[in-house]
Design a protein that fits this description.
flat, mainly alpha, 2 domains
Length: 141
């Protein structure tokens, strides 16, 4: 969706939250191959429809960005903490901390590694793996 391609998915408890049927993709009943085939034919047979669905899918996907998700969580936390129970102090400052922590951890998880990954393991010259590579042509001796 994020790259603007049309989506055909089944109604299985998740896609219908992301995809608006006929607008940002096509939804079909689960375990119904004829419906899936028909939806795929509609997309593949009509390039203009595919472009419209893809463009709408990309727009819809932006609503689920890291920032949008964190802001949605912040709103939920703020609503939950807005009216503290009697006798307790307001906990609103916690919201800012929680949202900041959520964003920081999500960004760290999504960021590329700081260092490149180590090179692939090179087997010792006399090992069985080195023999296979020599015999069948591998990228290393």
């Amino acid at each position: 969706m994020a790259v603007g391609l049309p989506v055909v998915a089944t109604l299985c408890g998740g896609p219908e939250e992301l995809i608006e049927d006929g607008v940002s993709g096509l939804l079909v009943p689960p375990q119904h191959p004829p419906a899936l085939a028909a939806a795929l034919r509609r997309v593949l047979g009509d390039p203009a429809r595919a472009r419209r669905l893809g463009a709408a899918a990309a727009t819809r996907a932006r609503a689920f960005s890291l920032e949008a998700t964190a802001r949605g969580m912040e709103e939920i936390y703020r609503e939950l903490l807005a009216a503290p129970e009697e006798g307790r102090e307001p906990r609103a400052p916690v919201v800012g901390f929680l949202v900041g922590e959520l964003l920081t951890r999500a960004r760290e998880a999504a960021a590329p590694p700081a260092e490149p990954p180590p090179p692939p393991h090179t087997p010792p010259a006399g090992s069985w793996l080195a023999g296979l590579r020599r015999r069948f042509g591998g990228s290393k001796p």
